[in-house]
Specification:
InterPro entries: CD9_LEL, Tetraspanin/Peripherin, Tetraspanin_animals, Tetraspanin_EC2_sf. By secondary structure, the protein is mostly helical. It contains 8 helices and no strands. Helix 1 runs antiparallel to helix 3 and helix 3 runs antiparallel to helix 4. The longest helix has about 40 residues. The termini are far apart.
Amino acid sequence: MDGCAQMCKCFLILFNILFALVGFGLVALGMWLRFGAETRGFFDIDLKTTQFNIGVMVLVVTGVLMLLVAIIGDCGACSHSKSALSVFSGLLFVLIIIEITAGVMAFMWSGRVADELVNFYNTIYAQYLNTRSPGQAVTLKLFHNAFDCCGIGGPIEVFVRDTCPDGNVLQKLTYSSCPGVIKNVFASHAPLVLGGFLGMAGIMTLALVCSFVLRRHVSPYYVSPRSYVLLTSSPSVVFPPPADQQI
């Protein structure tokens, strides 16, 4: 194996280790969002939360798929298995297509996603004013801490002040209205999200190229070491002649 193939092998091993860590993180995040005490309010609210269930399922399935791809890739790189590298290349190519598609869709539909999230926030806000449900309070706190905002009124908000981020009196007077902040965040960060998706797709493409290089250099020449069985002859046993033949 030449130096290029050896570098590709090292890169694939490191890439798959990091890929597995990211996949494990996605699975853990999905489980926390679904079963965590702080986020259970998303699913206990009297509202159609199908999109959040789908989002959590996508996180978990994506994380499991990344773990599977990383395990297959490491096995192929370490054992020089042609079949494992082929499966790894196919799965990684599918993930690259999904990554690019998701980035483009997130960039193109950022305004629509922001509008849906604002409508969801407004609905939770209105329900909390009527019911004061603990689950809705947890959901509002998550929104307020994530976007550093407070209610619909911002600095003059008086109805949900107990769910706003902690701070002194001056900080509470500078909080902005959450619907406007949500739209601004999605509008300003859409190019960064697209760049992140495309950057990740570029790294995955490099790993795909390294997989092809390693497979081309290893499969024709690499032969697994032969197994040898040590054969030992059992010692022969000499039996004495019968008594009647002894002289």
